[in-house]
Amino acid sequence: MNPERTLLLVGATDETVTKAKALGLHVLLLQHPTKITPEQERLADLVRVVDYTRWDLVEPIARELHEAPGFAAALSLTEPGLEGAASVNDLFGLGGTGHEVALRFRDKGVMRRHFAALEPDAVRSAPLRDREDLSLFGGRHGYPFIVKPTDATASIGVRRVDGPADIDRVWDEVRRLSGTRTDRVTTLFVLKDFIMEEYLDGPEYSVESFSFGGRHVVVAVTEKFTDPAHCAELGHAMPARLPSGTEETVRESVSRFLDRIGYRDGVSHTEIRIGEKGPRVIESHNRVAGDAIPDLVRSAYGIDLMTLALGWPFGLADELPDRPVARAGASVRVLVGEPGRVESVDGVAEALRQEGVIDVRISAEPGDTVRPVRDNWDRLGLVAVAGPDTAAAVRRGAEVISDTIRVRVLGDDGRAGLAGVAQVTERTVESA
């Protein structure tokens, strides 16, 4: 095993390991006990099963593996592994993203404090420690404002405070969530600290980027489908249908953000809103996006962000041009249902065979409880599709769900029905 072609991978999906091996890399995998799969054990050159969110457990293993067989880079593309991989980079001077920068991405409170020291018009924020903090923040900065965990994903625990009448409700929810897992199945984080921050108005987008030694390339701007009633994402589309001239402003804004956060190499996923003050960052991550967005990028732009991220530290990837050009449109449409219980799931294999379908991911299983949509874990699944342009892809995704995917739900009212495509407001879809 050649150490110069060996990667220490902190957490991974089957796809990540497969793509690393396809590049000719040797893979040393640190995998959580709840995440290990037979395919990962088959593909990786060496596997250590460990809670990789705990540095006290990761450090001795990293030291042992660095001694033999050795590795030239440490990387994670999954949220819980980012800090661990960064700490390994620091420990052995491997280059790549270090822990200080990774923490600015990972901890929303750290990110806000970092930018408050750099920018006079930074998003206003404050830690939430007790109920009175909510009243003080609202009185000082006005309503609405957002409350969210500093350490979570998928819109878990994100609440909007519209006025003083919401304070008791939101504080009760914060107390209920504190100390709990961040989802019902898979995420490794426990909710601990919460932050209050200024509400950002305007339509929401995400920006998929790759940084080459400090040169930031915006690969794609992703249009988000949202509902003002909650914080769950109801779909994505690319290329985003932006007003004339806005895309260049977005590129400049995100590049400036990445510079100031100290990021130089690798993939990133930055969520923004574009309001009266222009693009403003909600949060950012030094990893690939979720929700099949990398599949949309690959379909619309022909760029595989995961392979790029794995290959770049080893000189196995070429730099991208400053302005990648889309060759098609792509979208994700989300499946939701009325509160109740799932009775059956059909149509997935049929949908996967249809023209333009990139992927179908149905998380709902018979017997599962269907909850009112508040965050991404309340959704029942998604369909990713390609089309000749963005609008066509958005329409095609809705057609596949309505015509082919059959998730039967017995409602709390005793009536049976089918889950359907999440409806999005006309303003969101036609934001350009």
Question: How does this model look, in words?
Answer:
The protein has 432 residues and is an alpha+beta fold. The chain has helices at residues 14-22, 38-43, 55-67, 82-92, 99-106, 108-116, 131-141, 167-177, 246-261, 293-301, 305-311, 348-352, 390-403, 426-429, and strands at 6-10, 26-31, 46-49, 73-75, 125-128, 145-149, 159-161, 194-198, 204-212, 215-225, 235-238, 266-275, 278-285, 329-336, 340-346, 357-362, 369-370, 381-387, 406-411, 416-418, 420-421. The strands form four sheets. Strands 9, 10, 11, 12, 13, 14, 16, 18 and 21 form a nine-stranded antiparallel β-sheet that branches. A four-stranded parallel β-sheet has the order 3-2-1-4, sandwiched between helices. It has a four-stranded antiparallel β-sheet with strand order 5-8-6-7, sandwiched between helices. Strand 19 and strand 20 (416-418) form a beta hairpin. Helix 5 (99-106) packs across helix 6. The longest helix has 16 residues, at 246-261. The model is unreliable at 426-432 (pLDDT under 50).
